C-alpha cells in the first residue's frame, strides 16, 4: 500500500464501546482496516473483542489490533468531563499514526482524518437540534457544556474525508462537515432466511438497543392500538439496555400486558432463531440514520414498519412499510393481519434484498476510502 514492507499505522477512536449498531459498524471498519494497516483502537472503555466480534459477526483476531486506553476514567469519573478529556486527547494520540479514523462521529484530530458518521450524534449541533426536536433537559445541556469545556473550545477537527451510513444522514450532516459527505451503507451479516411464512408466529418484534431515542414505548402503544382493532399478534422486545432507567420503565409497562415479552440481547444462533420465527418488525426511532436491527429483521424475512423520512427507508423502500403516525402504523399492522397476499409479497421482497448490505461490499469500499484518506496525510497531498 505504501510501497514498502512496513504497513502504515491507523488509530481508530471510539469513546465507549457499547453493544449497539454503531459498535457493530465500527467493528466492520476495523475488520476492513486490518487488511492494510497496523490498527490501534483508542477508547475510554468497553472494548471486549470477543463480545464485539459476536455482536457484529466479525472475526478479528486478538493479535490484529492494539488497545490504547485514554487513561481519563479514574481521574475524572464524571462522564461529561471524561468524554471531553477524551476528545482533547485525540490530537496527541493521533500524532504518531499515518491515518486517524473516527469510528462514529466527527472527532477533533486536528489533522485530516477519516470520519465515519453513524447517527445524528456525530455532531453536538445536530444532536441538540434535530435529534431532540430542539429540546434538551437542563441536565443534558449542562453535560454538553461540561464536555465542550473539557474538550477545549473550539475543538480542531482538521478536515479529511466524511462517510455517512445512509443518504439520509449524509444530507443531514452536510452542513456541519468541512468537505463532501459520501455514503457507504454498513455491513450487515444476514441471518438465515428463517421459517416459511406459514410457520411463523404472528408476532411483532422490536429488536435492538432499548434506549429513549428508540421510542420503544411508542411501539407498545402502536401494537396495543392494533390489537384493539383486531390484530391478533403479540409483541416481543429484545435487545441490550441502552440506559438502565429507561429499560426499567419499559419492563414496567410490559408487566401489565400479558401479550408483551421482554428478552435480553440476542446474538449468534439465538438471534437467528428469534429473527426467523416472527412475521413483523417495528421501529419507532425518528432519527434512525440506517438501522442495523431493521436490516437484520428484513434479511430474515420479517415485514418491518418504520417511520417515514429516516435512513431506514433505504432498507425497506416499499411505501406501505413507512408510517407517519402511531395511528397509521397500527392501521397498517391491522391491514397486514387481514391480507395474506400483502404479507407474502412484502415477505418475498424482504428476502430478495437480504444480501444487499453484505460485509464483502463494505470491506472493499472502506479499504478504498482509507487509501484515499491516507493520501491526504502524505507529503504533497493526494496522488
Shape: elongated
Low-confidence stretches: 73-77, 131-136
Name given to the CATH architecture of the largest domain: 3-Layer(aba) Sandwich
For the record, the count of structural domains works out to 2
Number of helices, counting only DSSP H or I runs of 4 residues or more = 13
Please tell me about this protein's structure.
This protein has 383 residues and is an alpha/beta fold. It folds into 2 domains: 9-187 and 358-377, 3-Layer(aba) Sandwich (Rossmann fold); 197-352, Glycogen Phosphorylase B (Rossmann fold). The chain is 39% helix and 16% strand. It contains 13 helices and 13 strands. The chain has a 7-stranded parallel sheet. The chain has a 6-stranded parallel sheet with strand order 10-9-8-11-12-13, sandwiched between helices. Helix 1 crosses helix 13 and helix 7 (216-228) packs across helix 11 (326-338). The model is unreliable at 73-77 and 131-136 (pLDDT under 50).
Q: What are the key terms here?
A:
alpha/beta, Rossmann fold, elongated, six-stranded parallel β-sheet, single chain
Amino acid at each position: 500500500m505504501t510501497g514498502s514492507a512496513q504497513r502504515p499505522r491507523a488509530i481508530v477512536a471510539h469513546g465507549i464501546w457499547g453493544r449497539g449498531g454503531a459498535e457493530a459498524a465500527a467493528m466492520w471498519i476495523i475488520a476492513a482496516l486490518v487488511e492494510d494497516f497496523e490498527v490501534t483502537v483508542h477508547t475510554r472503555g468497553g472494548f471486549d473483542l470477543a463480545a464485539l466480534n459476536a455482536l457484529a459477526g466479525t472475526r478479528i483476531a486478538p493479535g490484529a489490533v492494539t488497545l490504547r486506553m485514554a487513561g481519563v476514567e479514574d481521574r475524572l469519573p464524571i462522564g461529561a468531563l471524561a468524554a471531553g478529556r477524551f476528545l482533547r486527547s485525540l490530537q496527541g494520540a493521533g500524532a504518531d499514526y499515518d491515518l486517524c479514523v473516527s469510528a462514529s462521529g466527527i472527532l477533533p484530530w486536528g489533522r485530516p482524518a477519516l470520519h465515519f458518521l453513524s447517527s445524528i450524534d456525530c455532531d453536538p449541533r445536530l444532536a441538540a437540534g434535530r435529534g431532540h426536536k430542539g429540546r434538551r433537559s437542563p441536565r443534558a445541556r449542562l453535560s454538553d457544556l461540561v464536555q465542550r469545556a473539557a474538550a477545549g473550545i473550539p475543538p480542531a477537527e482538521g478536515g479529511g474525508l466524511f462517510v455517512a451510513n445512509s443518504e439520509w444522514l449524509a444530507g443531514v450532516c452536510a452542513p456541519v462537515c468541512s468537505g463532501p459527505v459520501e455514503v457507504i451503507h454498513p455491513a450487515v451479516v444476514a441471518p438465515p432466511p428463517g421459517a416459511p411464512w406459514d410457520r411463523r408466529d404472528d408476532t411483532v418484534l422490536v429488536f435492538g438497543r432499548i434506549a429513549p431515542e428508540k421510542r420503544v414505548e411508542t411501539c407498545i402503544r402502536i401494537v396495543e392500538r392494533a390489537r384493539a382493532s383486531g390484530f391478533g399478534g403479540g409483541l416481543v422486545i429484545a435487545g441490550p439496555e441502552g440506559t438502565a432507567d429507561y429499560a426499567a420503565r419499559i419492563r414496567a409497562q410490559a408487566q401489565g400486558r400479558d401479550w408483551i415479552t421482554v428478552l435480553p440481547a440476542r446474538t449468534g444462533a439465538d438471534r437467528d432463531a428469534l429473527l426467523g420465527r416472527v412475521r413483523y418488525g417495528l421501529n419507532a426511532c425518528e432519527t434512525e440514520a440506517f438501522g442495523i436491527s431493521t436490516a437484520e429483521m428484513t434479511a430474515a424475512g420479517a415485514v418491518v414498519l418504520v417511520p417515514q423520512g429516516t435512513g431506514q427507508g433505504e432498507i425497506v423502500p416499499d411505501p406501505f412499510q413507512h408510517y407517519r403516525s402511531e395511528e397509521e402504523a397500527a392501521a397498517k399492522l391491522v391491514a397486514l393481519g387481514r391480507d395474506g397476499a400483502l404479507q407474502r409479497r412484502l415477505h418475498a421482497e424482504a428476502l430478495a434484498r437480504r444480501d444487499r448490505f453484505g460485509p464483502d461490499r463494505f470491506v472493499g469500499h472502506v479499504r478504498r476510502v482509507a487509501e484515499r484518506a491516507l493520501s491526504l496525510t502524505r507529503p504533497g497531498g493526494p496522488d
